[in-house]
Amino acid sequence: MIGAAEAVEVTACDEAPGPGEILMDARGMKKRFGAGRSAVQVLDGVDLSIRRGEVLALLGPSGAGKSTLLHILAGLLEADSGEAFFEGAPLPIRASHRGWGLPLLRRAGIRHAGREKTSLVFQDPYAALSPHMRVRETVLEPLRARRGDRDDAERRTGEALRSVCLLPPELYLDRFPDRLSGGQRQRVAIARAVVTQPDLLLADEPTSMLDASAGVGILNLFRRLASGGMAILITIHDLATACYVADRLAVLSGGKVVEEGPPEAILKDPRHETTRSLVNAAAARYCKER
Ligand SMILES: Nc1ncnc2c1ncn2[C@@H]1O[C@H](COP(=O)(O)OP(=O)(O)O)[C@@H](O)[C@H]1O
Ligand SMILES: [Mg+2]
To answer: Which of 105, 138, 224, 248 is deepest in the core (most CB within 10 A)?
Structure first.
């Protein structure tokens, strides 16, 4: 069911200004799963950068390695090789980084500036929220590990809910997820991701589990967050959705970024076979729906 907040927000969200300087830069990212004959080289030298205030859509068919790349950038998974930079400083993406593995970095609570400034939104808003936590506790949780008093955390929680158009926040703070629609759940998940005011938001197919109308509201929300200067890297398997939300597209295929550029240029002249098949699939869906 679509709530009133979603309906209002679709008309309230605006276009963003142009992107700024490079925020995150990943080079030669490689990742293989399994060993021997069953090994799969999922990422085979991915180069990707994102600018402040930019919405970059990482496109590719299912199994292309989109989630894998996002999880590496979020620090949930180690890369086999490659390097990444956040604001020009090296970002730990491998166990060998300064001799510390990522799990160890996490266990010891040793944080990296680039990680502190990055948040991840998962695909499934039903699995992402604990059914036993009220919206207030869910959104406030990332602030627990940080300095600041309870009043400040409460204020930032309210601000985060406002920034995702869950208005007024008081209406939602004491609800459990079962009292929220799918779109509202995803907004709460995004509020939790932005409560720490990250510079980079990673979103893994955040609309694929939502109905079309709730999905449009979430896409507009990303555009508005980017207009405030946040960089947003969003994985999408559908070209039409990517063109709607993104300033720039990057197509992942065979473990590499095979094509990138503004949506108009790619739609007009798709060069790689994978991009052409994404264009054809989007055109077929458009014709079928009319
Ligand atoms: N933890 C894992 N162990 C083994 N294989 C994995 C693991 N995670 C992903 N894969 C494989 O890596 C490939 C890419 O997966 P994924 O990054 O989820 O693709 P996408 O998000 O583009 O659909 C798939 O073939 C998937 O089965
Ligand atoms: Mg995925």
So the answer is: 138
